[in-house]
Amino acid sequence: MLRKTYDKVTALAVRREAPLWLFAIAFAEASFFPLPPDALLLPMALAHPRRAWRFAAITTAGSVVGGALGYLIGYALFDRLAQPIIHLYHYEAAFATFQSGFARYGAEIILIKGLLPIPYKIVTIAAGAAKFNFWAFIGLSLITRGARFFLEAGLLRGFGEPARLFIEKRLGLVAAGTGVLIIAGFLLLKFA
After folding, report:
1. What integer pLDDT is reported at residue 72 of this predicted model?
2. C-alpha distance across the termini of the chain, in Å
3. SS3 151
4. 116-135: per-residue pLDDT in tens?
5. Higher confidence at residue 148 or residue 47?
6. Dihedral through CA 172, CA 35, CA 19, CA 176, nearest 10?
7. Of 66, 51, 67, 62, the residue nearest 153 (C-alpha)
8. How far apart are alpha carbons 133 and 176 in whole angstroms?
9. Per-residue CA distances from 115 to 75, 159, 161 (Å)
10. Has residue 3 got a pLDDT over 60?
11. Cα torsion for 68, 113, 53, 67, to the nearest 10°?
12. Is the C-alpha dihedral spanning 124, 127, 130, 132 positive or negative?
């Protein structure tokens, strides 16, 4: 099953409309959708290493624009939209922690959490609900999301073919490592 999913994502990554999907997934992940854009960015950068910077820029733009929607949800529509989303993903405790943390450490939270493999929508909604300065939020999101996606793209651009061969040869190990990183991100979210 893992190989089948990998093959499907890889096939999607080389399609002409893949950049549009990449933007859409990055946008959605930053505001309401649980799938991280890395799941498409990585295979796209592996398939076309020379376009890795372009893909990182598309992912960053989608994430920041989606982050603005997440901010709006938290700022203006918290009771109607954000509360159900937080409840759906069982993020009530994490949200309460973020909201109190924004009062003191808003910029640091955005910068650190934007780099980690945790759902960025928590950060965007919390920033809006905490009434964090919108333009500062956009600037910090651009920095942190750009750093994450350009780092990934740079690594894959530099090690494209060997990285692709490593991933394909050790797909189970890579998937397990990714799972550990995601779980670690959720644990950091819960206990940090």
Report:
1. 93
2. 34
3. helix
4. 777 899 899 889 988 899 99
5. 148
6. -10
7. 51
8. 38
9. 23, 21, 25
10. no
11. -10
12. negative
Tell me the one-letter amino acid at 75: Y
Q: Could you give the number of structural domains in the chain? A: 1
Assigned token pair, 74: 């938290």
Which residue type, as a one-letter code, is found at position 49? P
Question: What span, in angstroms and rounded, lies between the C-alpha atoms of 118 and 188?
Answer: 8
Which pLDDT value is given to residue 114? 87
In tens, the pLDDT along 70-92 reads 999 989 988 787 788 888 888 88
Cβ-contact 145, 120 below 8 angstroms = yes
Give residues with Cβ within 8 angstroms of 111, minimum separation 6.
140, 143, 144
| Identity at 143, one-letter amino acid code | I
DSSP per-residue letters across 65-132: HHHHHHHHHHHHSIIIIIHHHHHHTT-HHHHHHHHHHHHHHHHHHHHHHHHSSS-HHHHHHHHHHTT-
Range of the domain at 146: 2-191
Using CA atoms, how far apart are residues 61 and 26, in angstroms rounded to an integer?
8
| Cα 68 → chain centroid | 14
> How far is 117 from 150, CA to CA, in rounded Å?
15
Let me know: does 167 contact 56? Beta carbons within 8 Å.
no
